[in-house]
Design brief:
single chain; 212 residues; mainly alpha; 5 helices; 85% helix; transmembrane; membrane; transmembrane helix
Amino acid sequence: MSGGVDLEPLQTWNELNRKNTEDDVIKSMYEACAKSSEPVDLFVTWLLVGSAAVGSFWVVNSDKLVPYIGKTGFMWCGLFLCVSCFFGLLSKMYALQIKVRTEIISALNAVMQGRLDLHDQQEQKILEAARLHGVELETEIRVERIFSVFLSPLPAWLRNREIRKAAKNGLEPHAGHRPLLRFLAFQSFYLSLQSLGFFGFLCAGFIFVVAH
């Protein structure tokens, strides 16, 4: 109380406003991370295409290359090239997960916002009618039922795991966005290994040419 005025509603309003703004900023940061995945994925794609082209040339012209680098050199170069492609594919998998999750979140946001606004309007009318009749009604959205119905086509073990995960996160506003940052980290990590593999291929080629 300050001067006979109850400040608790004002403080609650202020805290809610701050939290909503902070959540929006955090959400925007996650979405920005998802967008930064695109140039990373583009580089991975070009490196994969280049590796595939070099690999094809390497195999087709093996009889001409072996005299210059030897069988051991040919095997090491091929190994580095395969390792590079393998990590490139792993990076592409995480890029695909980012793309899919981003599309799902965007589609849900487009549909849910209008539906939630309608629910809020109907909820106020229902609560008002309930007060007139002297009854109490539960009008909150049943998150457990939503996930239970949505995940019902999945195998039991996977469905139960996702339901437990959803129950753990509850209505945490960033539960759907948080994996984006983790996926981006893995995507970039595997890109680094892909690049090192291709660099190793080049180094091995020069070394075995000189040593042979």
